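--- STAGE predict ---
source: upstream dedup step, 1 unique chain passed
mode: sequence only
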Amino acid sequence: MPRLPDSLGALRHDNFRWYWTATTVNLAGTTMSGVALAFAVLSITDSASALGIVLAAETIPTAALMLLGGVIADRLPLTAVLRVGMVVLGASQGAVATLVLTHTARIWMIVVLAVVNGVANALTFPALQSILPRLVPAELLQQANALQSFARGSLRVVGPTVSALLVVGVGAGWALAFDAATWLAAAAILVKVRLPPRPSREDRPSTFVELREGWTYFRSTQWLWVVVLAFSMLNLVQVGALSTLGPPRAKETFGIAGWGLFLSVESVGLIATTLVMLRRPLRRPLLSGMLGIGLISLPMLVLGLRPDLPLLVVCGFAAGAGTEVFSMGWNLAMQEQVPEAMLSRAISYDVLGSIIAVPVGELLYGPLGESFGYRDVLVVSGVVYAAICLVTLSSRSVRGLRRVPADPLAVPQT
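--- STAGE serialize ---
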């Protein structure tokens, strides 16, 4: 294989290269599906509350089953868990696309299929998040995470805008159908990722005992539970303000295509930051991350105070950059600080805590916006979001966390 630049060194490892290819193919669809689903729902019933119900129908089972997903990822082959989950997600998204394309979709039908998606997400997400340390050496983890982020950000530049144009031109169903196809293609590509089986444990404890072990580790690790607690509130606000109120606010002001553009430019900021972090290491990952994620408050304030598309685009760029700084910092903290045997369970508690209040935001913000006006709800949300980020940094365990020096003799389990 030709020599790769040092910043792309993770791609020298076959397992990571196939995994990166599979997730990149999948991202080509998922970056389009959010916009398409939102406006598919709004085309059936022009109601932010209905959109919130659909979003919550996926989030609730995801939260309810996330801990089980963590145990499954620690017990079963990671690639097998991922392939099964991707096939289920492809099939359910294909069903949504068919309903939309044939003009037979009803809100209750989309809700049922959203529940299926939520179950599949819960059972596969911990495996998706915990597999990376088994694909590359420890010293390449930041590069591997950056390459993942670069692919995600690049496709998010194109995906939302293309999806919005498809919605306006031929309808949301075609974007949803493309997403379904990419889930199935990614499952096929993952066959090439081959990891050795984990050592068998004849004395393996029960599922309940493993969940209790995970909880003990979670509550005894201060930086972990502090950030997760913060994100239980941050995600409630973000999903409620941007995912639930954002599309209808855009529709009544600068239009559907403008909303797609905002989401795309947000990813330009993510990509630009990823390119920097391919070579520039984070020293204090959570300090940088919490300062970065606080920039998400800017689009909320702009949507509320002055829904002007050029200004929103600038704030979207900043929010994308900040999101990538947090994502990189959090992934590195989890992958370096948490023992490999505990990682999937720690991730499951992380995700559960982070999304457990999201359905509240999805269900609450529609009625709030319709009762008090989108403007006031969005402005208050922006202020609250920024305040939570600053309060989180008052914890020394968060702002003082540093990188773990890599062991030069360590090799991935491939």
